[in-house]
């Protein structure tokens, strides 16, 4: 029985680790977590915020995920969007999911990320 999502993996080209760290730590505010040594030899980076983990794995024939994406739930979505925009990240609001505020952004490699927060009825 499936009980939770352990992590989401996105692809990255070889040698992109510093750009990933700049975005996922510096812009999104995540923490880099160590990869097991046998996996670290492959390159890439792992990041965590609370119980959410994103793994960026090296793929030789890398193509960014521009449609497929992780959906990341946030609190204080307006402030979080402002944080990303202030750090140079693209923020694209989308009002098409009833009961939620959400926007899309893209990491420096072009991978799409969705950020959403449920709307509390007044």
Task: Explain what this protein looks like in three dimensions.
The protein has helices at 17-27, 37-40, 77-86; strands at residues 8-12, 31-33, 45-49, 52-58, 71-73, 92-94, 100-106, 112-118. The chain is of the alpha/beta class and 122 residues long. The termini are far apart. The longest helix has 11 residues, at 17-27. 20% of the residues lie in helices and 33% in strands. Strand 6 and strand 7 form a beta hairpin. It is globular. The protein contains three helices and eight strands. The strands form two sheets. The chain has a four-stranded mixed beta sheet with strand order 1-4-3-2, covered by helices on one side. A four-stranded mixed beta sheet has the order 5-8-7-6, covered by helices on one side. The chain has one domain: Roll (2,3-Dihydroxybiphenyl 1,2-Dioxygenase, domain 1), CATH 3.10.180.10.
What's the SSE blueprint?
Blueprint: E1 8-12, H1 17-27, E2 31-33, H2 37-40, E3 45-49, E4 52-58, E5 71-73, H3 77-86, E6 92-94, E7 100-106, E8 112-118
Parallel strand pairs: 1-4, 5-8
Antiparallel strand pairs: 2-3, 3-4, 6-7, 7-8
Strand order of the largest sheet: 1-4-3-2
Ranges where pLDDT stays below 50 over 5 or more residues in a row are none
Please name the CATH topology.
2,3-Dihydroxybiphenyl 1,2-Dioxygenase, domain 1
Radius of gyration: 15 Å
How many E strands?
Answer: 8
Give a quick account of the main beta sheet: strands, pairing sense, barrel closure: 4 strands, mixed
């Amino acid at each position: 029985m499936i009980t939770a999502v352990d992590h989401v993996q996105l692809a990255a080209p070889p040698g992109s680790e510093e750009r990933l760290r700049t975005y996922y730590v510096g812009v999104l505010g995540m923490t880099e977590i160590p990869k097991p040594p046998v996996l670290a030899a492959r390159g890439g980076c792992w990041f965590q915020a609370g119980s959410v983990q994103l793994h960026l794995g090296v793929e030789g024939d890398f193509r960014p995920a521009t449609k497929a994406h992780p959906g990341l739930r946030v609190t204080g979505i307006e402030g979080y969007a402002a944080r990303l925009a202030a750090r140079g990240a693209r923020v694209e609001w989308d009002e098409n999911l009833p009961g939620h505020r959400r926007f899309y952004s893209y990491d420096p490699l072009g991978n799409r990320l969705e950020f959403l927060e449920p709307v509390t009825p007044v």
